[in-house]
Amino acid sequence: MLYEIHIDNTGDGEADISYQFRFKTVLSDTGANDTFLYNTGQITSLKDSTWNRKQFYTVTRTDKHGAHVLGRDLACPPCNVGRTRSPTTPR
User: Fold this and answer.
1) Which of 16, 27, 60, 66 has a CA positioned 20 to 30 A from the CA of residue 83?
2) What DSSP letter does each residue of 1-52 carry, written as one string?
3) pLDDT at position 43, please?
4) Hey, what's the torsion of the CAs at 35, 41, 43, 44, to 10 degrees?
């Protein structure tokens, strides 16, 4: 999945700076218990083995000097799927 933000600093209708946010999903449970579930237990950390559908993103800035990766494989926080599954997520 790709999201882009285009910024026109000069008022000519053309992007002077663009930011790209590229997301990827990684499934943890692909073995014998292969499941479609988002999580199979409580998620208490970014490395929790019960969190099955982790997402990561890369941020790229493009301007007149070219494209520059600002961050790669940055972890998205888990979705708040309720207090039972995400007990440390603030309300």
Assistant:
1) 27
2) -EEEEEE-SSSSSS-SEEEEEEEEEEES--STT----SBSS---STT-TTB-
3) 85
4) -150
